[in-house]
Design a protein that fits this description.
With about 250 residues, the chain is mostly helical.
Length: about 250
């Protein structure tokens, strides 16, 4: 579990690093510009890290399934070699997803406006500048994103359905512990998938909402993920309580 959490934190760091520094510097400038190469790099790395993280969340759901439904075989099934292979598979799928998007975009002839009405470059905005039918192209690109997103979302639903069925058949204490273990992961999944679905699978026509979802998806969610898992960790909570007690005692003595 901690090996997968470390990889999730690493992907969150990469995802926020792709867009956040440029967004912060743009707030301090009157003229906000980005080169074509920089725009393409943002698209590539956003979809590489986001695609890898979506698959990694499915891997983490599988890890929770094995831990709850097959606890006696957990150390055998989820060994380090298996975890490493699953993480590499998530990176491979994310890379393939990103390259399939880039193979289409870099070959497009661009004309028309050159202003991206958002905080960073993304596929639904950039393809509007193409000298082709952007509506049909947008449907194809959203379908590409939607297949990955919805496939992983369905796999997550299947995984947690099995977990809930197993929990219902176990003792009350075991069920409570299992649900507590899964709460953090379910929270992260909701925070990550809901904005992604509205951006790529079911896009909205409201520009302000699109901008908010883009920032939430690329900045706030990667920031919240480590906090959510940290606050749900029993060892961390006990350490925080000990620190709070020591601080109160120190203030009382002074």
């Amino acid at each position: 579990m901690y090996f997968l959490l470390a990889n999730l934190s690493f992907l969150d760091m990469l995802l926020s690093s792709v867009t956040t520094p440029k967004m912060i510097t743009d707030f301090l400038r009157e003229i906000k510009t980005i080169s074509f190469e920089g725009c393409m790099c943002q698209i590539l790395f956003v979809h590489l890290t986001a695609g890898s993280e979506i698959v990694l969340l499915v891997v983490m759901a599988y890890d929770r399934y094995v831990a709850i439904c097959k606890p006696l075989h957990y150390s055998t099934i989820m060994n380090l070699q298996k975890c490493t292979g699953l993480v590499l598979a998530s990176w491979t799928i994310g890379f393939g997803h990103a390259m399939s998007q880039m193979a289409v975009i870099v070959q497009l002839p661009f004309c028309g406006p050159r202003e991206v009405d958002s905080f960073f470059c993304d596929i639904p905005l950039v393809i509007k500048f193409a000298c082709k039918d952007s509506y049909t192209l947008g449907i194809l690109m959203n379908a590409n994103n939607g297949i990955l997103t919805m496939t992983c979302f369905i796999l997550l639903l299947i995984s947690y359905t099995y977990i809930l069925l197993t929990v219902c058949q176990s003792s009350k204490t075991g069920a409570s512990k299992a649900l507590s273990t899964c709460t953090a992961h379910i929270t992260v999944v909701v925070l990550f998938f809901v904005p992604g679905i509205f951006i790529y699978v079911w896009p909205l026509s409201n520009t302000w909402v699109d901008k908010f979802l883009a920032v939430f998806y690329s900045v706030l969610t990667p920031l919240l993920n480590p906090s959510i898992y940290t606050l749900r960790n029993k060892e961390i909570k006990n350490a925080m309580k000990r620190f709070q007690s020591c601080y109160i005692n120190f203030k009382g003595n002074t």
